[in-house]
Automatic annotation (TrEMBL):
Residues 38-381 form the Sulfatase N-terminal domain. CDD domains: iduronate-2-sulfatase. The gene is IDS. It is an enzyme of class 3 (hydrolase). This is Iduronate 2-sulfatase.
């Protein structure tokens, strides 16, 4: 164990001592949670809804499916911007990117936008021990190079030591040499430190659970898994779950003829990997050769099964420690990932494949009955289980946003729900832009409680009308166009309008392009009918959002 880990344990001990003697709360007396449940918050990086529980027929994800079967699963959950830092800062503060002012990776909201309270900070201020493992905040300036420690966390966040090799040349190529590839199945015994980041994160999380088991304070443990983010670097045995002959191309691998160029993301990060560079694919529109498309899809799915193993081990440890009867488990991803749909790869767009996320919440006694003698989460080895073993759980069709996590988790543990934000909220430290979903979780029957017309908003910035080298992730100063998108059960509607990076204003009189997809007839969003059915009502709804 390294020195960093030792000092973290020491700090954890001090924190716990502080909490036990009441010295932990500085601002006010800790309001002890009425229910006092712990929270295990699992955030997966770049995981789209390619999971068994979301109906995927290829992906093997038995442990996440098992979690879904004990949870309420939201089938229509969306990220507010399909890229890591903006999405994470948005759901962790409960504010939209328009309020965090973060559309790229380059600013810290407390300095740049407002001193907004985060979910873990709120729990910490209310008597919880809050801990971060792996990638929860995006690292770097967007979380002050500290994952927002100490405001958000009781102890210094943990980062797996093997993370530093992620982008190094550790992937064995056909030539026998090591490369920095996109597709990177590895023999774990041959990689540096003989481990991978997510394996280390699981071990560290289990260690913290063992310590917390014996404490009186409730905990909020956030565990951020790195895969299936690129590079697709995972233990090679997971490949056997996905024989190439079983892998298909995306159902719609071509760029739709009526796709506005501003909507297209040219997947620059993929192109930078050595194996993709070797394909000589021309920028921005030439497709990746089909056999390589299959390899990417195969490795993405394999990386998902590898993460599923981590989730299974973590949840089974929670169960071993008899913590499943007083721990809420929230499972999400920060955004999705295109796997060749519309000729696109990676995130960086407003399409469902990039904005839709898995989201499920397990609440003991509420989403599943707790029996002292039976297990809630047994580990199921994705490499050797019999498919169809996992029953379906409760799910909700209501369209929801990641933003609602703040209010939802607060309500579920019995903390006061932060108030709804006023129209302008830069000066308001504690408020959220979305309401609690607890009412959709705390229902006894399988029926959706009433019908609520709901909307999920996402946005994506661009530097210009046509794809450039920086179209995927423009710096704030280069943003000229903002794609404001709304998703209902029936349609996705996106308006690309002029944007001023100095004032942060979207100019609704300056429309660059529009997209409208009618999902009943076009679930994959390949037929843009914007021109034909442009509707003033939809326009006004977007306008309403921008004024918030
Ligand atoms: C931000 O809020 C935290 C927590 O309330 C407080 O400790 C800190 O001083 C505030 N920072 C600024 C710049 O207001
Ligand atoms: C950001 O980190 C720096 C250096 O660690 C620290 O001095 C500063 O107070 C932090 N900023 C905020 C707003 O917490
Ligand atoms: C591959 O597809 C075949 C034919 O559908 C199926 O029998 C087999 O189980 C699949 N293999 C895996 C590992 O899923
Ligand atoms: C890509 O271009 C390089 C240099 O022009 C060439 O050597 C190589 O054979 C090309 N590869 C493919 C797959 O076309
Ligand atoms: C949870 O289970 C443990 C062991 O079975 C038991 O000691 C504890 O009282 C239970 N807690 C709750 C809140 O039911
Ligand atoms: C869940 O619903 C039950 C029955 O309606 C209610 O008594 C309980 O307070 C609710 N719990 C939460 C956390 O909303
Ligand atoms: C908004 O766009 C319209 C149309 O391009 C333009 O005439 C107007 O000056 C713009 N407004 C601002 C504030 O930039
Ligand atoms: C949409 O309508 C405008 C104005 O009538 C027209 O110039 C444009 O070509 C149309 N675009 C499509 C894709 O039909």
């Amino acid at each position: 164990m390294g020195q960093a880990a030792c000092s973290r344990d020491f700090l954890l001990l001090l924190t716990l001592l502080g909490a036990l003697t009441g010295a932990g709360a500085r601002r006010s007396e800790p309001r002890r949670a009425a229910v006092g449940m712990n929270v295990l918050f699992i955030v997966v990086d770049d995981l789209r809804t390619s999971l068994g529980c979301y109906g995927d027929k290829i992906v093997k994800s038995p442990n996440i499916d098992q979690l879904a079967s004990r949870s309420v699963m939201f089938k229509n959950a969306y990220a507010q911007q399909a890229v890591c830092a903006p999405s994470r800062v948005s759901f962790l503060t409960g504010r939209r990117p328009t309020t965090t002012k973060l559309f790229d990776f380059n600013s810290y909201w407390r300095v740049h936008a407002g001193n907004f309270t985060t979910i873990p900070q709120y729990f910490k201020e209310n008597g919880y021990v809050t801990m971060s493992i792996g990638k929860v905040f995006h690292p770097g300036i967007s979380s002050n190079h500290s994952d927002d420690f100490p405001l958000s966390w009781s102890i210094p966040p943990y980062h797996p030591s093997s993370e530093k090799y992620e982008n190094k040349k550790t992937c064995k190529g056909k030539d026998g040499a090591l490369h920095a590839n996109l597709v990177c199945p590895v023999d774990v015994l041959e990689v540096p430190e003989q481990t991978l980041p997510d394996i280390q994160s699981t071990a560290e999380a289990i260690k913290l659970l063992q310590i917390m088991k014996h404490q009186n304070s409730p905990f909020f443990l956030a565990v951020g898994y790195h895969k299936p983010h690129i590079p697709l670097r995972y233990p090679k045995e997971y490949l056997k779950l996905y024989p190439l002959e079983n892998i298909t191309l995306a159902p719609d691998p071509d760029i739709p003829v009526d796709l506005p160029p501003v909507a297209y993301n040219p997947w620059t990060d993929i192109r930078k990997r050595e194996d993709v560079q070797a394909l000589n694919v021309s920028f921005p529109y030439s497709p990746i050769p089909q056999d390589f498309q299959l390899l990417i899809r195969q490795s993405y799915f394999a990386a998902v099964s590898y993460v599923d193993t981590q989730v299974g081990q973590l949840l089974s440890a929670l169960d071993d420690l008899h913590l499943t009867n007083n721990t809420i488990v929230a499972f999400i991803s920060d955004h999705g990932w295109s796997l060749g749909e519309h000729g696109e790869w990676a995130k960086y767009s407003n399409f469902d494949v990039a904005t839709r996320v898995p989201m499920m919440i397990y609440v003991p006694g509420m989403t599943a009955d707790v029996h002292p003698d039976s297990r809630m989460f047994s580990f199921i080895d994705p490499l050797s289980y019999a498919p169809d073993q996992v029953p379906e759980g409760k799910s909700r069709k209501i369209v929801v946003e990641l933003l609602s996590l703040f209010a939802t988790l607060s309500e579920l543990v019995g903390l006061e729900v932060p108030p709804k934000c006023p129209e302008t909220s830069f000066d308001v430290q504690l408020c959220t832009a979305s309401s609690s979903l607890a009412a959709y979780i705390n229902v006894t029957d399988d029926e959706e409680k009433g019908f609520v017309e709901s909307v999920a908003y996402s946005m994506y910035p661009r530097p210009s009308d046509t794809p450039q080298w920086n179209s995927d992730l423009p710096d704030l100063k280069d943003i000229r166009i903002m794609g404001h998108s709304m998703r209902t059960v029936d349609y996705r509607y996106t308006l690309w309008v002029g944007f001023d990076p100095n004032t942060f204003n979207s100019n609704l009189s300056d429309i660059h392009a529009g997209e409208l997809y009618l999902l009943e007839v076009d679930p994959n969003q390949d037929h843009n009918v914007y021109n034909r059915t442009f509707s003033e009502t939809l326009f006004m709804k977007i306008l309403g959002l921008l004024r918030k």
